[in-house]
Amino acid sequence: MTVLAPLGILGGTFDPIHFAHLRLAEELADAFALERVIFIPAAVPPHRDAPRASPAQRLEMVRLAVAGNPRFAVDDRELKRSGASYTYDTLQELRAACGDRPLCLILGADAFSALTTWHRWQELFDLAHMAVARRPGFPLEQVAASLPSALRAEYLHRLVPRPSQLALAPAGRVVVHEITGLDISATQIRALCARRGSLRYLLPDAVSAYIEQHRLYR
User: Fold this and answer.
1) By the 8 A CB rule, do 202 and 18 touch?
2) What is the mean predicted confidence (pLDDT) over 94-98?
3) Residue 69 in domain
4) Per the domain annotation, does 11 fall within a domain?
5) What are the pLDDT digits (tens) for 155-211?
6) CA contacts within 13 A on the Cβ side of 14
7) Domain total for the chain?
8) Residue 103 region, left (φ>0) first, then alpha (ψ -120 to 50), else beta?
């Protein structure tokens, strides 16, 4: 049987994309032997306010940010789709296109703990593995303790100890990995833009230049 390397899926508003997003993708690509990490900007995020930058601007910032990394790619399917950007719909489309290749949905521990609020959340496990990133000082036991009971049952049932196990099935497993803690947020960056603060070392220079050129977040 041919074993196909998993694909990582990293969604978000990316308003704007920054080094914490990129470092997360890089570390999980290494740890989980991902063939590629696909960045998918959301058009209408169901769980947060509407993005400040336009879809076209956010897409261009992601493209600028990932340029030069052969393991990173950008997918604009959610920006082309009308209505709320549901992860279920995106994974269903990717599963149809990728066949039995393993798909890994990359989530921070905070986002994973809120998974029961997501559209058709239980069916997400039929479409992808869950690659959960935890911050330093956030132990594995604390991840489980933070989950609502229905999700905790799924988590304990599907948790695997080794990332290599993700390549052995198309979907359905959960693995948790500690990542480098970078305390950078898009909210912080937008606030800096509003007061004309320096964005240096928070996001790629090409993205910073794009923000300045288009006077975003002012």
Assistant:
1) yes
2) 97
3) yes
4) yes
5) 999 999 999 999 999 999 999 999 998 999 999 999 999 999 999 999 999 999 999
6) 34
7) 1
8) beta
